[in-house]
Amino acid sequence: MASLIRGILPGVILMAVVLAGSFLFLGNVSMTSFLTATSPKEIQANTQMQNVPACNSDSDCGQSQFMTANYCGADGNLYRDYDNQNCLNPGTPSAKCQESVTQILQQQCPNGCSLGFCN
Asked: Domain map of the chain by residue range?
């Protein structure tokens, strides 16, 4: 027997089906009517469902921030890793969040570095 799980947000219904201990995420749908599961493979709705974009702006993807303390790079300088969150194709059905990590130079160390500090 399948169980339908619904989470309701303003204008959005998050749906998933649990069948025999397995969890199947059906996605975010925008709609105004009540959904019912008539079989494990079928979900019916009284109105047309539309995909909700995964993101509309970079801020929907999380906060971009430094994720490490200073560390010594292979070149003997100090670096920190920056986690950058971006929304690709914002507001469209193909929108998705992309994370990229970049090594950012914090300080040049003429005498090299050790344990996250210039010598």
From this structure: 2-51, 58-118
Q: What is the pLDDT of residue 74?
A: 94
Q: pLDDT tens digits for 52-84?
A: 678 999 989 988 999 999 999 999 999 999 999
Overall pTM > 0.85: no
Neighbours of 69 (CB within 10 A): 10
Cα 58 from Cα 1, distance rounded (Å): 40
Residues 48 and 34: beta-carbon distance below 8 Å:
no
Query: Which residues, 6 or more positions from 59, have their beta carbon under 8 angstroms from its beta carbon?
Result: none
Q: Residue 70 in contact with residue 80, Cβ under 8 Å?
A: yes
Q: Dihedrals φ, ψ of 49, to 5°?
A: -95, 145
